[in-house]
User: Which sequence fits this backbone?
């Protein structure tokens, strides 16, 4: 199991133990982290699973694909250099304790 | 049981039903919630069933974890069909003999595959694709399958065709209409996808109906009305869906190819609502009433109904959008196209992309895009805000929808 720490826009921290191989979006949606919508189910179609990955955890993730990059440009909350689509973050052992900051809005 | 204990009963545990229940709790609803679904599996995501069909045991992606539903105090009855809704007594009755009272009932019964009434439809190896058990049966048959016949060139049939072709299956698609996804998309988009499937080696046959399916020693022969025969180890039938509106109809609620609801998704009974594939409602984006089949429609309507039950009644106004994945092409549609709408193709030089703007008279009503996600997102805004875009704009040099939307919003 990989611990994922979600930080809500109002400063609350919600920690969830998730199986390896799941995407951060799936973990969030299944566990009712309502700041992540995941409207398209992870098909890179909607940009409603936008998150800010803590810089300490982002090195492992590599760069966003062209598709993800294009979607991030259209996200509802401002894009920063920490922005990712959480459907594209598949949890591995190295992500233990990853900190995910949630944007105020997805639509 | 005292009437104070009734709460809300949600009939149907698909995307719309589950979201209604979860959203009610999200809004602080503190009455009992009962979710009843006839599928035996825990509530799962439906789109991957036709889009990720490679493994012989397809993944069951839960909509919400069972423990979350439990934490939210949402009671769930799976594998249970509601046979009757008694409006006078305000009770629902299941086929296995259980009864529950309600203050509010939400009909989220979805739709089922439209049956194709031809001889041989019951043969082994002939499949529909709607629920998890369908997907599993197909996935188990696919390994070792060299050829397949798809009846119906709609989303389901073509998504399956693309998947099957990608694992080396020779696919023949038979379509009664003149073009691919003819009810859902404009002619230029149809042509784009037809070319793509043909490039994958799939044969597309249009303008012909299917007469019968015959067993030929383990293989299936699909006999067409013009005498031609298409053969395959597997036959997939994807000729649309029929809404599950019988429970509502039998209870005396108006139905018309779907449960009729008002713009706030309420039936004529002020305690009964309908959401998702089974609901027919007046949309601000199309004349008359519509019944839409998409996850976004189901979850958006669920949010509207949950709010209404909590006392915040508002019309449902979300811009409809749809998507399909077929091989390398991601199709997204924003808005609602009309049969008589005019299609204008935006000039595009990048390979694999397409954007078609559909106009009803002068009004932009839908935008279909392929592999152009950012343009699709801008399209939703353009249609929702009725940003005035003309056919001439679309073909003008340097036209970028997102810029047009931003300019208009800034003005």
Assistant:
């Amino acid at each position: 199991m990989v611990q994922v720490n979600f930080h809500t826009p109002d400063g609350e921290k919600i920690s969830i133990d998730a199986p390896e191989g799941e995407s951060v979006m799936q973990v969030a949606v299944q566990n009712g982290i309502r700041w992540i919508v995941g409207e398209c189910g992870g098909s890179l179609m909607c940009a409603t699973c936008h998150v800010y990955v803590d810089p300490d955890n982002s090195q492992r993730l590599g760069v966003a694909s062209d598709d993800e990059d294009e979607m991030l440009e259209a996200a509802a909350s401002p894009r920063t250099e920490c922005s990712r689509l959480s459907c594209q973050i598949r949890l591995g052992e190295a992500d233990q304790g990853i900190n995910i900051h949630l944007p105020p809005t997805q639509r | 049981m005292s009437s104070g204990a009734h709460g809300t009963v949600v009939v149907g545990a698909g995307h719309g039903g589950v979201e209604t229940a979860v959203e009610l709790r999200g809004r602080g609803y503190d009455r009992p919630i009962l979710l009843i679904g006839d599928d035996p599996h825990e509530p799962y995501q439906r789109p991957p069933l036709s889009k990720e069909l490679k493994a012989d045991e397809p993944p069951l992606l839960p909509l919400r974890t069972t423990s979350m539903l439990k934490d939210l105090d949402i009671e769930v009855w799976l594998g249970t069909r509601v046979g009757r809704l008694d409006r006078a007594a305000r009770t629902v009755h299941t086929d296995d003999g259980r009864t529950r009272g309600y203050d509010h009932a939400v009909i989220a019964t979805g739709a089922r595959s439209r049956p194709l009434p031809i001889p041989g439809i019951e043969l082994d190896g002939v499949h529909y694709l709607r629920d998890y058990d369908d997907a599993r049966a197909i996935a188990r048959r696919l390994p070792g399958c060299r050829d397949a016949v798809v009846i119906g060139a709609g989303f389901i049939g073509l998504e399956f065709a693309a998947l099957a072709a990608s694992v080396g299956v020779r696919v023949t698609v038979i379509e009664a209409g003149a073009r691919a996804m003819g009810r859902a998309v404009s002619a230029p988009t149809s042509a784009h996808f037809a070319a793509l499937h043909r490039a994958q080696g799939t044969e597309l046959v249009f303008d012909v109906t299917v007469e019968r399916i015959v067993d030929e020693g383990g293989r299936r022969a699909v006999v067409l009305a013009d005498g031609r025969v298409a053969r395959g180890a597997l036959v997939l039938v994807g000729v649309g869906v029929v809404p599950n509106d019988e429970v509502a109809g039998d209870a005396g609620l108006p139905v018309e190819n779907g449960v009729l609801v008002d713009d706030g998704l309420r039936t004529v009974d002020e305690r009964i609502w309908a959401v998702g594939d089974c609901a027919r409602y007046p949309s601000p984006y199309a004349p008359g009433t519509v019944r839409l089949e998409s996850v976004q429609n189901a979850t958006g309507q669920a949010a509207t109904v949950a709010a209404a039950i909590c006392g915040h009644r508002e019309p449902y106004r979300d811009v409809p959008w749809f998507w399909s994945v077929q091989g390398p092409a991601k199709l997204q549609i924003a808005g609602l196209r009309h049969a008589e709408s005019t299609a204008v193709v935006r000039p595009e030089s990048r390979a694999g992309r397409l954007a078609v703007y559909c106009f009803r008279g002068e009004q932009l009503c839908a935008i279909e895009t392929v592999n152009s996600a950012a343009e699709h997102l801008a399209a939703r805004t353009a249609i929702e805000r009725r940003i005035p875009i003309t056919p001439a704009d679309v073909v003008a040099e340097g036209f970028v929808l997102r810029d047009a939307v931003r300019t208009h919003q800034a003005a």
About this structure: The beta strands of chain A are 2-7, 13-18, 50-53, 83-85, 98-101. Chain A touches chain B at residues 26, 29-32, 34, 39-41, 43-47, 67, 70-71, 73-74 (CB under 8 Å).
